[in-house]
Amino acid sequence: MSDDGHEQTSHENVPSRQRKRFPGISSRAYEHPADRSALVALRKLSGFDTVFKALSGLLPERSLRLLFLSDSVRVSDQQFAHLNDMLRDACYILDLEKVPPMYVNQDPQPNAMCIGLDEPIIVVTTGLVELLDEEEMRAVIGHEVGHALSGHSVYRTILLFLTSLALRVAWIPLGNLAIMAIVTALREWFRKSELSADRAGLLVGQDLKASMRGLMKIAGGNHLHEMNVDAFLQQAEEYEAGGDLRDSVLKILNVLPRSHPFTTVRAAELKKWAESRDYQRILDGHYPRRTEDKDTSVSGSFRESASHYADHVKSSKDPLMKLVTDIAGGAGDLGGRVRRGFDGFTSSAPPKDRPTDTPPRDED
Questions:
Q1: Which residues are tagged catalytic?
Q2: How far apart are CA 142 and CA 82, in angstroms?
Q3: Cα 260 from Cα 235, distance rounded (Å)
Q4: What pLDDT, in 10s, does the model give residues 79-137?
Q5: CA distance 158 to 357
Q6: How wide is the angle at C-alpha 110 spanned by C-alphas 230 and 256, nearest 5°?
């Protein structure tokens, strides 16, 4: 039973324990600043409003619902009852008044999504259900309920549709180019929205270890006895700090086609937030309410996002981010640093040694 009298359903090997509830919580409480700024940038993208309005009226949402109703298993008290209990509990904790329908879809690939224009639908795959234990699954369901509370399902649905449409019109040069520009912007936003939803999942599960285990399993499968959280997080640090400017460019190219951030990065971001004062304040009951959303300053949110990016660039260990910081700080020898950073980018041959009798030329 939760601390305000809401009954929790206990399952085998899952201890019943108290979880805090957050009445009237606004999604602003857990939204990552990068999520908000990416959404602002997306809405300012030329042509996005036109496409959004057109697709909102054309997307076959009724067909989508009928598809899941006819070819998936709807979670209820009679089917996947333990998932239904967790779904209702997640909605109760985040105070989402209407519980969205949830379906289990036969797919060995571990995945979950929240889609829908008028009303959100949550879909989890059998691969995910079979991979995660109860507490890990609770965090995932909280993650998807966080998407629903934030209104992410609308943009996610459009992203799915446009990704499919881009493949169909690939033979139309200008048409495909326009669609891919919006798809790329949507993917950038959605990757950031995943960081927000991870935080919502932690607020629901209130078990950082379970959230970490779930992310590790998604990355490495059901072999927890072979994995270590500290070593997993170390990978994220090595990923960010390792290499030279060439690696920084490759990181950008690697992430562009993805809808989700890399798993180690998600784990590191979530752990950092869980250890922050912001998270503790929410647990203590100090968080923005939905009733205050209408009074929220858009410019204030944008400034917060800009401040986050500035702090991220300053603290980042990535070679490209360090270079950006140096440029902003007016550091010297930037030309030489760029040339050394990209040395070997187009050729694997090592640079020839300078003759010993020739003094080295000053770099610009």
A1: 144
A2: 14
A3: 17
A4: 999 999 999 999 999 999 899 999 999 999 999 999 988 789 999 999 999 999 999 99
A5: 64
A6: 75
